[in-house]
Design goal:
The chain is 46% helix and 11% strand. It is of the alpha+beta class and 294 residues long. The chain folds into 3 domains: 142 residues; 73 residues, Cytochrome Bc1 Complex, Chain D, domain 2 (Orthogonal Bundle); 45 residues, SH3 type barrels, CATH 2.30.30.100. Strands 4-3-2-1-5 form a 5-stranded antiparallel sheet, with no helix packed on it. A hairpin with a 5-residue loop joins β3 and β4. The longest helix is centred in the N-terminal third of the chain and has 14 residues. The protein is elongated and about 85 Å long. The mean pLDDT is 94. The structure holds heme C (HEC).
Amino acid sequence: MALARLLKIEIPGEALVAVAKNESSIPALRIEALRALATQKNEKLPACITSAFESKEHSIRIEALKILAKFNPVLALDRVEVVLSSNKANTLEKQTALALLGGDLASAKGDSILNLLLNSFEECPPSLKLDLTEAAAVRQINAPDPDFTHTLEGGDADRGRNLFMNHIAAQCIRCHKVKDGKGSDIGPNLKSAGLQERGHHLEAIVEPQKTITEGYGSISLTLENGQSIAGLFESEMKGVIEIKDAEGVITKVASENVKERTPVISTMPPMGAILTKREIRDIIEYLSTLKSKK
Ligand code: HEC
């Protein structure tokens, strides 16, 4: 069906309506049918949206809301209120609703929904705080700024994995492995990252210099005789510094022979300027699923 849309082949409205309304259709297909009906501006679309809202599948309800926001903002705002106060809606559905209030549904009514939630910001679930503060920022409503502490909860692990593997600027996989195989050993293997706190991941991602994983910090030394040595700082004990080079060979240097040394630094770039907060939230969610014990 996506192919038909790409090729601009018109599938008869009747067939689309049948798929869109059928709770036993495959969700991805049902979503495509809704999109195609929206493109056709089919007169049965509103009825299909209503039945999509009854679906047990979150993904279908979410798509229906996004479509409704485009062609009937007034009804979509009503739906947003339902979603935000419902305990059946999942996190992603509520996040979508909040994002719409800073996007397609930006309006006075949208602002009053945001203000209501902001009035009891402390009670807002942590998984929604980023979406709420971001929508408020777009609307220039007085609210706490979106901040990194709002990225600890509410991410999507699948999206996070995809970013980890494929983000062109962040390039996590250039330096890390998550199992044996793809990736490299410049940074620590993250296969057990999920056994650590989310706060640790956040700090490692946005402030890599703050705590440096043992054996992964870089240092360079200039010796009294003018020679310079650079590599990974392994240890410094009893007046001996151990430095590992790219091949894993360890050089021992007596501290007393060192004229100058750089601080131990992380080669990991701070990601706060490379990734959006939402992307960081997704990556944190992904890292917390990595729980290999070996
Ligand atoms: C240029 C190489 C490089 C890139 C790119 C890189 N890292 Fe790192 N990373 C490191 C190094 C080196 C360390 C160890 C030093 C430190 O603690 O900062 C590290 C440490 C970490 C840690 C802490 C691990 C521990 O044992 O506590 C996490 C989590 C992490 N990186 C996640 C990421 C994520 C997520 C990305 C992509 C968004 C990424 N890194 C991209 C090199 C890199």
